[in-house]
Amino acid sequence: MTDVTFILPDGTQHSCIAQEGLSLMEVALQNSVSGIIAECNGAAACATCHVIVDDSLARALDPVSEHENDMLDFAAAAREPGSRLSCQIRVDARLNGATIRIPAET
Description:
By secondary structure, the chain is α+β, with helices and mostly antiparallel strands. A hairpin with a 5-residue loop joins β1 (2-7) and β2 (13-18). It has 3 helices and 5 strands. The N and C termini lie far apart (34 Å). Helix content is 19%, strand content 22%.
């Protein structure tokens, strides 16, 4: 199991035990983390699961695909360095202890 902490826009932290192989979006939904809507259920077609990862985690993760990159342009919150769709990040050991920020909608 992997420990992941989601930080909500108001600074509230929501720590979760994440099962490897699930997406971060699935982990957030299973743990009722606010701010992850997931209208498309993980098909990378809506950008309602937008999260921000820190630089070191961004470098460790698989690169953003062209499709994910395009979809991030439609996120409700402004895109930032480290912006990702949580449905496109699979939980594995690289995420253990990670802090994932959920941006405020603009």
